[in-house]
Amino acid sequence: MNGGEFTELTPQDWDLIRPYLEENERLFGIRVDELLTVDGQRRMPERVYRKVRPVQLRALASSTANGSHEDKTVGVTVK
């Protein structure tokens, strides 16, 4: 993953993605309950899914007027 970091999945995020998962359940038979089951145990959505948000790459932010830039590594925070 380039230029992103993991953040907490909020109840609002779950409210946003759940209808899509329910539609997939209807179309493809992939039950939401199965997606939330890990090692045989039903888990809360925030324990199964992670949200990824973009972060500004320092290499792009430090570009100079002549188009050159410094090569920087961006870290990713993992829950």
Question: Key terms for this structure?
Answer:
15% strand, alpha+beta, 79 residues, two-stranded antiparallel sheet, single chain, disordered C terminus, 4 strands, elongated
Task: Summarize the structure in words.
The chain is of the alpha+beta class. The strands form 2 sheets. The chain has a two-stranded antiparallel sheet. β2 and β3 form a beta hairpin.
Number of helices: 4
Question: What is the H/E order?
Answer: EHHEEHEH
Return the average pLDDT rounded to an integer: 80
Helix content range: 25-40%
Quote the beta fraction. 15-25%
* Alpha carbon gap, first and last residue: 15 Å
What is the C-alpha radius of gyration, as a whole number of Å? 18 Å
Uncertain segments are 69-79
Helices and strands in order:
Blueprint (H helix, E strand, L loop, with lengths): L3 E4 L3 H18 L3 H4 L1 E2 L2 E2 L2 H4 L2 E4 L3 H4 L18
Give a brief rundown of this model:
The chain has 79 residues and is an alpha+beta fold.
